């Protein structure tokens, strides 16, 4: 158990770095759908960033097991504590689900998952247009879900920083 009252340096680096990457991915995803002109460039960014987020999520989860987060304040209402823990697991689930769903979707569509240079990821499923259509819809829906969960996470962080002033925000925001 973390008794220091703050997240370790790697956890903070992964949190803030992945926050930037995930927000960028959400906006790139919207841009891919909205722009015919920019779509090829955005797709070329989206694929390797998705793979990077998946790798970083694995590292982040391993680090969380190695160095657990500090405990929530003892005076936090039970429902809020439950919501905090549940929302973090939802975020972790989405950090894994979104890239895996995208990779599977492209595989089902028969599209190569091109990384940088000649590096290409193997197909996860065989070509199947019906599965591709379903996965594309699911990927979009989960993208909106991720955006909503991030907004709730941000609102909760600001609540801890500005209203409760209980050190929860500071535990991730800076080294103590």
Automatic annotation (TrEMBL):
The entry's keywords: Cell membrane, Electron transport, Heme, Iron, Membrane, Metal-binding, Transmembrane, Transmembrane helix, Transport
Cofactor(s) needed by this chain: heme b
A Pfam family of this chain: Ni_hydr_CYTB
Keyword Heme found: yes
Main location: membrane
InterPro entries listed in its UniProt record: Cyt_b561_bac/Ni-Hgenase, Cytochrome_b561_oxidase, Di-haem_cyt_TM
Name assigned to this protein: Cytochrome b561
Organism: Lysobacter spongiicola DSM 21749
């Amino acid at each position: 158990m973390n008794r220091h009252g703050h997240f370790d340096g790697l956890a903070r680096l992964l949190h803030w770095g992945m926050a930037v990457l995930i927000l960028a991915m959400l906006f790139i995803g919207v841009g891919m759908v909205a722009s015919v002109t920019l779509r090829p460039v955005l797709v070329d960014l989206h694929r390797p960033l998705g793979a990077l987020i998946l790798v970083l999520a694995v590292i982040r989860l391993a680090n969380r097991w190695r160095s657990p987060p500090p405990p929530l304040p003892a005076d936090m209402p039970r429902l809020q504590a439950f919501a905090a823990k549940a929302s973090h697991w939802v975020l972790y689930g989405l950090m894994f689900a979104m890239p895996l769903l995208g990779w599977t979707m492209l595989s089902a569509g028969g599209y190569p998952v091109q990384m940088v240079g000649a590096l290409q990821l193997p197909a996860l499923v065989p070509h199947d247009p019906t599965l591709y259509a379903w996965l594309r819809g699911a990927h979009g829906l989960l993208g909106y879900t991720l955006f909503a969960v991030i907004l709730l996470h941000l609102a909760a962080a600001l609540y801890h920083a500005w209203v409760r002033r209980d050190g929860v925000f500071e535990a991730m925001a800076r080294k103590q």
